[in-house]
Amino acid sequence: MATRIAPIAIDAPTAGIGATAAALPRWLVLVATAIAVRAVTFGNPLVAVDEQFYWVTAQRMLHGALPFVDIWDRKPIGLFLLYLPAAALGMPWGILAYQLMALACVVLTAGMIARIADRVGWSAGALPAALLYILMLNVVDGQGGQAPIFYNLLTIGAVALLLPRAEDRDSDPVRIGRNLLAMLLVGMALQVKYTVLFEGLFLGLWLLRREAVLGAGLQHVARRGLGYAGMAMLPTLLAAAVYAWLGHFDAWAYANFGSILDRRGDPFIDLVGAFFEVMVPLAPLLVLSGLGWARMRRERAVTPGAHLLLGWLIAAMVGLLVFGSWYPHYALPALVPASLCCAATFAHDRRARRVAAPALLAVALVAGTLCVVVAQSKRGNAAQLAAIADGIGHGSGCLYVHSGNSMLYGATERCSLSPWLFPDHLSREREDGALGIDQIAEVDRIFAQRPAVVVMRTPFRGERPAVRARVQHYLHRLGYDVRGTYLIGTVPTTVYAAPAISAAVPPRRAASRPA
To answer: Are the C-beta atoms of residues 58 and 80 closer than 8 Å to each other?
Structure first.
C-alpha cells in the first residue's frame, strides 16, 4: 500500500500477540500469518468445488468458450476474467497461481482493515482485527479462491475512499472524484459476484446523505447521485453491451439474473442447518461489534466514520440473510466489516484487548486449522485427482462428469458435450427449472452424442434421483463399462467408458488412497 504502516507499538495488545510480533512491521505479521494458515492448501486443485469450476471456465475461455453461451453459470463475467491469468499457466502451476492471487488479496484486505481502524481512531485494535479476518477465513471455507476473497478487497477499497475526512467540503472536486472511484470499485465487485449488491446500495445511500450533510442542495445531491449510480452500474452495463453486440444478450441476462430467481430453495431442515453453519462463526464477531458500538455511545465517541462502518456491517448481514440459502463461505463478505468493527471494542476496552482478542484469535486459529484439514480430507487432493485423471485418460473423446469434480475437465483437457459443465447444475434437485433447459432433456442430448467417458460419484443429499436414474439407464443400455472406481477425498467416484474406448484400454478397478 502507498501509505507507510508504522511498526506495531508495544502499547498495542502485546499480551495477546506476543512481544516478538509486536516488534515486527504490521505487514510482515499479516503476510506471515496468511501464509502459515493457508499454505496447506497450496497446489491442491480440489480445495472447493466452486473455484474448481472458475478455473475450468477460465481455461475453456482461453480456447474460445464464451461464458453463459458455451459454458454456463450464474456468476458474472468478472470472476472468470480474474482466473484467466492463472488458467493460462495450466496445471499444476495455474492452481498455485490462483491460490497466490487469493493470498495477496487476503493480505491486502487485512492491511486495509488495519489501516481503516487507524484512521477512525481504533489503532489499538487494528492488528487484532486484521489477524481475525485472516484466521476466520479458514473457519468459513475461505481458505482458497472463493469469489468474496477477491471482491472483499474491492469493497473495502471503496469504503476506505468514502471514509469522512476533516477537510471534506461540498463542492471539492477531489472528494467527488474519490466518491466516483469508490462506486466504480463497487461496480467492479458486482461483476465478481452480485451478492455485493446490498453493500453497494448502502454505500450509495450513505454517499447521498453525506452530500446533504456537507450542505449540497437537492439538485446537486440528485445529480451526483446519478453519477455515483452510473459508475456503480458501468461494469455491468459494459458486460451487457458486449453480449448484446455478440448477439447473446438474452443468454447473458437469463444466466446473470433470471436463473437466480428461478432456482428452488432447499428443504427447511437443510436451511436451518446451513443458517447455523454461517451464523455460529460470525456470532462472536457480531457480539464484539455490538459491545464496541455500545461502549462508543456511552463515551460519546461515535464518529461519522464509525457510523459508516457499522452501517456497512448491517448491509453485509442483510445481503447474507436475504438470499435464503446458505453455505459457510456466504459469511465471507460480512467477515470484513465484522472484523473491522471488532477493532472498536479492542481499542476502547483494555480488558477486551488483553483477554478477548488473544482468546478469540487462538480459537479462530485452532478452529480454522481443523476446518481446513477436515475439508481437505473430505474433498481430496492433487494425487487423487491425478489418479482418476489417469484412469479417464487424455484421449480425443469427450467427457461427461455427471456428478463429481469439474476439475476433471481441466486435468484431462477432454472436450465436453454440454454448456452445463458444473455437475450440480444437471444433477441437483434445486436446479430443476432454473437453467433455461430441462435437466433430463439435456442428459438425453449429451448421451445422443455418445460421450467417450462418463464420471459419476455416489449419491448425495440434494441430488435429483430422476436424473441419476436417466444416466444409469444410458450407461446400461449403451454398454458402458466400469473402468475404475477411485476415492476422491472420502467419496467413491466411478469412471465409465464407452465400449470402443474400454476395449482399447483394459478396465481396472482402483481406489486411490488419500495422500
So the answer is: yes
